[in-house]
């Protein structure tokens, strides 16, 4: 089984907006490699930037991935994650019936991420 991880972000018109997500992708990829995990790590966007989630997953499947986890790099479960993402994943599953596709919760709802954001906010007072 070939694994892949897709960091799924919103997208924006300004190319510079993607920089933190590209850094996150590079950091995750480096950690995956440091742990000798066999897992492709890619970045996909909902809109305004490329690749889209379906295009990114099509490419991963073409490279042999059959177990893909999507991590929404969103602060919370808003309309995009409640409506748009399920529609996208339904279409992806229909296009790739043998694919194991897992979508985890929004990154901003993770307790560890919340703690890191809390600490950042407190440090901003200094």
From TrEMBL:
<dbReference type="Pfam" id="PF01903">
    <property type="entry name" value="CbiX"/>
</dbReference>
<dbReference type="InterPro" id="IPR002762">
    <property type="entry name" value="CbiX-like"/>
</dbReference>
<dbReference type="InterPro" id="IPR050963">
    <property type="entry name" value="Sirohydro_Cobaltochel/CbiX"/>
</dbReference>
<protein>
    <submittedName>
        <fullName>Sirohydrochlorin chelatase</fullName>
    </submittedName>
</protein>
<keyword id="KW-0479">Metal-binding</keyword>
<keyword id="KW-0456">Lyase</keyword>
């Amino acid at each position: 089984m070939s694994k892949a991880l897709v960091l799924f972000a919103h997208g924006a018109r300004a190319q510079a907006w993607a920089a933190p997500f590209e850094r996150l992708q590079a950091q995750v990829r480096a950690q995956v490699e440091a742990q000798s995990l066999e897992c492709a790590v890619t970045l996909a966007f909902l809109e305004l930037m490329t690749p889209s989630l379906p295009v990114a997953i099509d490419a991963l499947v073409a490279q042999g991935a059959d177990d893909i986890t999507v991590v929404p790099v969103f602060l919370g479960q808003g309309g995009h994650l409640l409506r748009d993402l399920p529609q996208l994943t339904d279409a992806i599953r229909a296009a790739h019936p043998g694919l194991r596709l897992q979508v985890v919760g929004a990154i901003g709802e993770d307790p560890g991420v919340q703690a890191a954001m809390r600490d950042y906010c407190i440090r901003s007072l200094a």
